[in-house]
Design goal:
Structural class: alpha+beta
Number of strands: 7
Largest sheet: 4 strands, antiparallel
Number of helices: 18
Strand content: 5-15%
Radius of gyration: 24 Å
Shape: globular
Strand order of the largest sheet: 1-2-3-4
Distance between the termini: 42 Å
Order of helices and strands: EEEEHEEEHHHHHHHHHHHHHHHHH
Bound molecules: carboxymethyl coenzyme *A
Amino acid sequence: MTATANTGGGSITISLDGTNKATTMKLLVGTVGPSVFDIRKLYDQLGVFTYDPGYGSTASCESKITYIDGDVGELLYRGYPIEQLAEQSNFLEVAHLLLNGELASGDKQKAFDDGVMRHTMLHEQIRRFFDGFRRDAHPMAVMCGVIGALSAFYHDSLDINDPEHRRISAFRMIAKVPTIAAWAYKYSIGQPFVYPRNDLGYVDNFLYMMNAVPTESYTVPPVLSRAMERWFILHADHEQNASSSTVRLAGSSGANPFACIAAGVASLWGPAHGGANEAVLKMLADIGHVDNIPQFLSEVKDKNNHTRLMGFGHRVYKNYDPRAKILQESAHAVLAELGIKDDPLLDLALALEKIALNDPYFVERKLYPNVDFYSGIILKAMGLPTSMFTVLFAVARTTGWISQWKEMIEDPSQRIGRPRQIYTGPARRDYAPAGKR
Ligand code: CMC
């Protein structure tokens, strides 16, 4: 194979040695970030595929939603730095931004907020789904099941080619997932379900459904409200991560958005992805004491051992994840506001981070804390059980998933996602009857 690059013209020509086949691939240039070679004609013209398990060098789509610069540790939603949004915005404003491309103001944002909040209730029949689960079911299992079932209830908004159906489905998803999450929690602790209250707003309504009981009045403490608002903003989208790519791939076949989001929830659950926030807390509990950190890290570095330092490392960030930085700072603030003077878990996490960041194993591999390293410490301080951590991630990420899904459906170059393979199994051979094998 011979490749000739023409950087001036932004193209590369590849010819297959020994054949007269050649193809010219254009270099597509984004607003910021690495350019990409357009390989769409590669197979037609050369008869070969590219091989990239895990998509380390492959852009699967064009997107205008979220940008990550992994080398400097930068995250932008529609161009806005995550630090500014976390500090100054609110979750529904960010949801409008992600879904529609711009920050709204005044009546427009109010109409959006009302549009979402009007859909917080679940069809009453959905209540019965919960009874089918064991009380000790992991709430993520309940989330996968109940979210998948939504398409059985909202048939009137399933025409993916109708922009109004897409709008209503987006509102329904963003509004109903918190109710499902809160009910999964209530079910696990044996308390009555608390119906949504739209007057409270998105984040406070969620905390209300999680914490209120019918026997007492409950006011959401402002400190919890602020901390959760920020936590949700930080988790709202993260470009083509495993769960968002799952949502896009599922949706590329024309599947309805509720089914696609259920697929995203399943993908998020894994410990390499959203399940890491729960795994970090388990890891810290297992380590138990600062004195045990060296022993734990030697297990992590042992290639015969499958232990990983959870909450560390990222496919894209080769620097500090900006979300982890914000969460580390806000962990101190939230604990102080909650009146928690000393949190042994935070102390342990800080010591673990410091030791790891000075260890050649992590330095050489550019492994830094990711969003999940500090997020669970804040959630635990807020009184949330570990098993709910990934569920909360799903609640926040639903906005990103539905924005990615909508962008994909509206992209004229969208086709069914259908990766190819390099086949290494047996070549054609003849079947032999059982007695002749
Ligand atoms: N602990 C120990 N070693 C690690 C870790 C870790 N957390 N992460 C990566 N490595 C090592 C890995 O063993 C490999 O070493 P070597 O080159 O000697 O084989 C090298 O670093 C590169 O790792 P990789 O597995 O090829 O990297 P990846 O991009 O495929 O995986 C990751 C990214 C996030 C899955 C991985 O870093 C990981 O498993 N981290 C722990 C789980 C975690 O915190 N996940 C949350 C990710 S951020 C939020 C989200 O997506 O939801």
